[in-house]
């Protein structure tokens, strides 16, 4: 009798499993782990089961966590299509969008509609990317953002905009294209535009190429190539660099610019240096200096010291005012030192080695 009872029990269990199997195919549904959904519908189309999850959807697919309003999971194709308030959590990365398609076989995520990607650094600061569309490849940890891209790095206080951005998370390397602009915030803001802007080692080094412009409220610099080192607050400009401000214009083969609080602290010009000066901002720059090497010190954006070496030639004009006479100093030499006061007036001119020149002045008794 006990044997008969066991057989009857096993028979009933087998019938129940047969009835349940079409709704919950064991092997197929193990590909994801469902945490919550207000409604679950499973359909079989041809040879594939498709799970439709509706309302407060929360599930894991592999190690990746998903939240959304609606999800369709294609078991054989291993594709998930999500809509409405989609959130994807993976390690230090959080992705949000209106619509997300996840291709499990290639580990590719395609996000569109108000996409926001947030990466959390080890020091708890964040880096964000906003765009109309984002592709993320999980295996290579490569992110591609397109259309109306905005990026922000909290640790380095850097903002950026462009039409297309690529970012390799493992290397901390990325680049901006299609009218990119990168801005470094502080007491003042310095912005960089170019045809392409690359950042390396998580913005520790920035490289900009072709039609490069660096600008702030005090100056504009242009060149073909720029390297910026954030830890040193140093920028190197190559390829016909030019500097323009209300008080001075300069050209050379190479600029090395050192910043402090986004203002120029020191500038070193090398090879074929040519600088024009003005005593009054936004007035004609009638004074000039030429040399093989020139170094300038700045105080709050104004030149206070200049030293020029090698084949130096200069002309400094001092216009007549109520409290001083006219003077014009045209000299040549190998070494020039120029000191300027806080009113942008020349305090001292010193020329050494192979000195030659003409000094003109007009004397009046006041």
Q: Structural class, from helix and strand content?
A: mainly beta
* Order of SSEs: HHEEEEEEEEEEEEEEEEEEEEEEEEEE
Average per-residue pLDDT, rounded, comes to 85
Percent strand equals: over 45%
**Which geometry do the CA atoms define?**
rod-shaped
Could you walk me through the main structural features you see in this protein, from its secondary elements to its overall organization?
The protein is mainly β and 366 residues long. It has helices spanning 2-20, 26-29, and strands at residues 33-36, 39-45, 48-61, 64-74, 79-90, 93-103, 108-120, 126-137, 142-153, 158-168, 173-177, 181-184, 190-193, 196-200, 205-215, 219-229, 234-238, 242-245, 248-251, 254-260, 263-277, 287-299, 302-318, 327-340, 346-352, 356-361. It has a 26-stranded antiparallel sheet that branches. Residues 1-30 have low confidence and may be disordered.
